[in-house]
Structures are given as structure tokens and as C-alpha cells.
Amino acid sequence: MAIISKKKKIYSISDPLRKYLVAQGRESQLPIKYEDLQRYSSSIPLVDKSGNDTLWETVFFEHHEMPQIHESLKKIYAQLKSAGDVSVIEHLYIDRIDLCIYGNTQPFRVRIVNKINDLFDYFYLKVADASRVYGLELEHLISPNKINFLVCGDTLVEEHIQGIPGDDFIKHHMKDQRFNEMRLAKEFVKFNERCLVRLLGDMHSSNFVVEVIPDFDEIHYRIRAIDFDQQSYEGRTAIYMPQYFKQNNPIIKLGLKHMEPELEIQYQKEERSLIATRLKSSVSGPAIKNLVTAMMEDHIAPEKNVISLRNELTKLYEEPRFMHCESMGAILKLSLMMVIKKPIRYKYSFMKRN
Description:
Elements: H1 15-23, H2 34-37, E1 42-47, E2 53-60, H3 66-82, E3 92-100, E4 108-114, E5 120-127, H4 130-142, E6 149-152, E7 155-159, E8 164-165, H5 166-172, H6 181-198, E9 208-215, E10 218-225, H7 249-258, H8 261-280, H9 284-296, H10 303-317, H11 328-341
Antiparallel strand pairs: 1-2, 2-3, 3-4, 4-5, 5-7, 6-7, 8-9, 9-10
Helix pairs in contact: 4-9, 6-7, 6-8, 8-11, 9-11, 10-11
């Protein structure tokens, strides 16, 4: 069972990472920043449709400040979605601003609504934690998913990642008659492998969503991470493998039910092959190289975590070069190289987890 040791500290964005963000167009001047929203004057608890406390609070600002705050937030949405073309926000209004009171960085979530058709979207303003920024960019470059985000000083702006929260999917959707157990099990194996390769930790069911994709008479699934704070931080391999979180056990059981070890290895190999293709791509390859180079110059985890993780990955891959890694960036670089050098790994499969 995987357990996070303690609350992770927030790491500031370093000069190498900032240089990378500027080169990739991720750095942008914003009309309002995270600390500006901290000046709210009051708040009320936000409850869901069943009346349960969501652990979010809806915040309110002084009446004379509201027009400027709302207009600034709409401009940020235009920067996030349409490269700053403000014509797209003509019919939009800010419906609500919520604060997550339990989150590591206490993010603000903005609900923005189209007044013509009442359709809505969300985006977030957060403290710009370097771990999360590395995680977002790696997700954009290495996974099948693309993510829009912007950074300005110590403020991070993220788009909303749509999908059914993993814990909600497990609780309410796995009994649906149309539910395809084998396809979800397959997707989880690939998600598990992707997290391990790019060293994204803490992927229990509250930290990912499930996209349901109809295709003719079949249902496909994609599991998407939504929390990137534990990118290349923890020192134990199990933290980077979703199969070791007890919250994910209902999905794990599907793998045990439907898959022989040979089939699981096949799906692992498929995912590692896809990552290898992205690493070699003329489009994503150079960006990945530059991002990892910036991370190698950065300090984003305690030294004891670096030592512990390199020891465990040495055993996992039977690769002694991990012992020479002096930073999380160096470990990540070698981990990515492993998808080319060792397209199949046999250890820590579902079939051997007990």
C-alpha cells in the first residue's frame, strides 16, 4: 500500500524553469494574480446538490472591486483559451469564485458562464509550485493529453480537466450495464505505466478523472491525472504506481480478473512504446529534453528522497546508472531513457503485487 509521507513543501520556480516557460509561451502577463484574490472580504461554505460540504468556499469581494476583478478574470480566460482574443469573452460572465480550503496551495476556482446558452467552464488560479509546473508540462508532452496553463510570477493559471472524478466513477459508474471492465483495466495498466515512467506520484482515485468515450457500440475510457503536486518528489517507487493505492483497488481487481501477466506486459510495452515515440518526435522531443535539462538544474525534493528513489529504481530496472543520479531531474532523464532501452519490465505487475 502506498502512503504519502508528509505534506509537500512548495518550491519556487527557478530561473532555468522560468527560461523554459518563456521559450514555450507559457509565461504571460496577467491582469490579476493569485494574491489579489486573497483580498476577499467574506466567504460561505459551498455545498453540492445533496447538501454535502464540498470543502470549498465561495468568496466575495467588496462591491466596488467586483467589476474590475471579473473583467480581469475574463481576460485571463481569453489568454488561456484563445491567445488573448477578447472577442471570445463578449458573452461570458463570472458566476462564482471558490477557494479550496484544504488544498496544499489553496487554489481559487473560477466558474465562467456563457450568457447565451448557459454553458459553463472552470479555470484555476494557484500558487506557482515548480513541482506542479513540471508535472503539467510533462503531462502535456508525454501523455496523450494536452493541457493549457500559464504562469506569471508566483501565479499559475490552469484550465479545468474534464472527466468523472475517479472516486465517483468507482462508486457510481462501475455497475452500469454498459460498463466495459476489460477496457478500463487496460487503460489503468497504461496509466499506471505512464505515471511510473514520468514519475508522477499520488495517483489515487481522488487525483484522477475518467473520460468516457463512446465509439459505435463500444465504450472506451481514458484516465487523466488532475493533481500534479507530487511530480518527482517522493522517494519510494510505489508512490509513482497507482496500482499500490488502496483507493484504486476496485479497478485493480478488474485487472486481476481479466488479465494474465502476459497481457498486462503487452499493455505496459504498448504504453512505453508510445512514450518512446514522443521522446523521438521532432515536435515534442526537443521540448522534453529542454524541460528535463531545466529540472536537472533544479532542487524539487529533499536529498533523502533522491537517494531513496534512485536505489529503488536501480532494483526495479536492474540498471546501476540510477545510482549516479544526483537530482530528481537526472533520475527522470534516465527513467525516460528506460522506455527505449528496456521496453518491457517484469517486476511489480498486478499479478505479483501481493
